[in-house]
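Today's session is about reading a structure prediction critically. Students often jump straight to the picture, but the first step is always the sequence itself: look for stretches that repeat, for charged clusters, for runs of hydrophobic residues. Only then move on to the predicted structure, which in these notes is written as discrete structure tokens rather than atom positions. Here is the chain we will use throughout the hour.
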Amino acid sequence: MQYFPAALQDLTDQFARLPGIGGKTAQRLAFHVLSLPGQEAQAFADAILEAKKTVHTCPVCQNLTDRSVCPICEDETRDHSVICVVAEPKDVIAMERSREFSGVYHVLHGVISPLNHITQDDIRIKELLQRVADGEVQEIIMATNPDTEGEATAMYISRILRPMQIKVTRLAYGVPVGSQLEYADEVTLSRALEGRQEM
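Below is the predicted structure for this chain, in token form.
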């Protein structure tokens, strides 16, 4: 028995296809969209179509942009000799919020994950190697997540770059600010000790 009209079920199914959205959340979103006034629903649909039409990857760093080159790559005040490699465009936003990094980025659009059938050819490593080959780059900062796939990706890229005489560093990670040592696991404490710095 069909409880909802086909169009509502289709809308729910489309929301459920989004990452991190389960069936109940998809249903709530579908009902919310239906409750919007016609003009707001149209604006919502237009925003999706406009983003799909105008947003593309920057030919230099592979970040998302609506320009020919993204604003970070265009910015001549940034240090173009230091590239911070991240897995996803949202990671650029996280790094920029810190206001500590003045170099440029390279977005891989994923990490190597054999279990998910994602290989080095499925992410933007070739584009990174092309940037390094151009000669201006002096340091690559690997800022992939400290999980199995992120570590494997960082190690793979660092091995490829080793013959190119490029300095490759990894973001330090360890005990979060504001937490207590007794709650930190062994791996976190080990990494915190490895990444310690002189005061």
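Discussion point for the tutorial: Residues 38-54 form the longest helix (17 residues).
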